[in-house]
Amino acid sequence: MWKRAIIGVAGGALSLLLAIGMVAQTSSSPGANKPRVIVMAVNGMEWDIVRPLLIRGELPNLKHVIENGVYGKLRTISAPNCPKVFTTFFTSVPPEKSGITGFVVGGQTADTNMLKSEPIWSILSKHGVTVGMANVPATFPTMPVNGYMISGMLTRGKGCEDGILCAPKLSEVEGGDAVYPQSMIAELESHVGDFRIDCSRMPNQDELQGQEAKEVAAWLDGVQKIRDQQQKLFVYLLKTHPTDFTMFDQSCEDRTGHWLYPIQDFNVGYNARVNAVSPDAFPNQYRAFDKVLGAILPFVDANTTLFIISDHGIKPLREFGDEHENHSHGSSVPSTTPVIAKHDFPDGDDVPGAFIAMGPGIKKNYEVMGFAASAYDIAPTILHLYGIQPPPQMEGHFLGEIYVDGDQPQTAKLNR
To answer: What is the Cα–Cα distance from 360 to 174, expressed in whole angstroms?
Structure first.
């Protein structure tokens, strides 16, 4: 098993672990001759909401990327949810092979100790590629990489032992390491602050009762504060800890879509006391994301490949067969939060994710039609950019079709 080779504590495995740790602490800048890749992931990015905003010119930074790159739907997996799909991004194998089949696996919240297939951050690290990751779901507890890793969704913490839909502060993390190397914790607290690891959960029925408007406004205010903290974190890391491969994620879009998708009064689950408070709340998440993207774009030069991906879309509950009162969003205990939209439909094609890419050799203002790109293709495509042969278990392929000549102009050759 790959994990025994990476985190084992005997013989050569221990030496490898120590070597990775030493590289992580001594590598402070990207390799001069290596490609640079930045992945910006957005949980539950919904094209039905994004496209009108683009047409109205309200997402100038995303529009810039699309006009200078490719864009389209991303085929996700059946009954998609965050840990399943992000692990598919990492491993390019289906959930039953990766070991992460949902928020809860075998009665326990999914974590990296359950991985059965080697993730991309491990493969890149072993090939000398520096890695930086922050707020990415399903990366708790963090593991040794040739760089740094700060966990995201499913991080356990004070008052949220199962790690589902909670937002522990960095100082409140429990049950594992949220930062690798641990020496970065004091630095982050000093320069970024005691930020929240993930987007906070939505209020439940008891909390909403009789004060819906107040609770909606307070929650949305908290969401924006979390996003501001995340942007500060991303910019700090890009400035002070540049890496060859960098991956960030934001989850508040998904959370807001579940609760405040702009539905009409004839939709399943509509409650005017909640859903009429801020009908623009969900579109506002993408307006806010565009500002975060604007803070990242200065770090994307002509030699950098930028991917913007989402694990799935999100749609309002259907007119039949949906009981939002029993929607647990991964927990084994039914939630009382009045969820009005979801993404775990049996047919993943009902809720496709988003795929956007810009960089050297990539076509410009080109729409990828149909489902040419899938969640399985992310890892093989990134590995190809670094000249690394994908391991045989990976089921995706290099997305050569997004390039003008079917390949990027200059592929690095790293230990093929």
So the answer is: 42
